[in-house]
Fold this sequence. Notes:
Radius of gyration: 21 Å
Number of strands: 0
Shape: globular
Low-confidence stretches: 1-5, 269-276
Strand content: under 5%
Amino acid sequence: MHEKGNAMKLDGGLVWRDANAMVTANREVLAVLAGVFFLLPSLAFSLFMPQPEPPAGADVKQLMAMMREFYVGAAPWFLGMTLIQTVGQVAVLALLARAGQATVGEALREGLAGLLPFLAVQILLVMVASLALGMAIALGGISGSPVVAGVLVGVLVAVGIWVGLRMMLTLPVIAVERKRNPFEVIRRSWQLTRENAGRILLYVALLAIAVFFIIAVAGAMIGIVLALVAGPQAAQIANAVVGAVVGAIFSLYLVASLSAIHRQLGGSAAPEETFS
């Protein structure tokens, strides 16, 4: 498929309808995949690596040191969880793209096959981001002005967010189009998301806000009841369970939304017919 002169404009309402229809039509098998690859890793991480409670009267330096220590210790667990969830995301995308033509086993094999290309893409992006950050810090140091350094870092963060949005379709490109060359994956995602970064940001932001609201309300209600009935430890576990369940649903709908976005921007109502 060749890049057109005028990029297709993303329709967020259509994306949601397509994503919801895909999840509803495949809810049984998707519930199993979401439970194994999204819910269980997230729940295990929340229960075995809970975020530390800041001590009373702690200053900013103490809080920063505490969080740094937590994230350094949790890094291997976080990496493992990310790898498992990535396999699940690619498997879900492959299953949705070839609904009725792919078994769960075939989708899982696609998930494993797509893991290395996805990691290669992430390594390339991290390398570029690290180089850009190093240059921004160096230029800020040369200028000798904290204002200039702050502006450079701010611009870099904004560019990083924009690039991240342009890379949102790397997983569908890997899973649906079955591309394995990381440079080709990046090029294809960049092409598909042309002139749609803002629309993708708006859609994902609205979805994330809705999920955050659900987690906050449900967690607070259940936590208050269990804290009164069974004590603070039970409330903490309940909050972890609620967060993991809602987070798994969010991950599932986000992956389905990526499939719908890829389908819409790729100009196909049936991805399996276009990306054979």
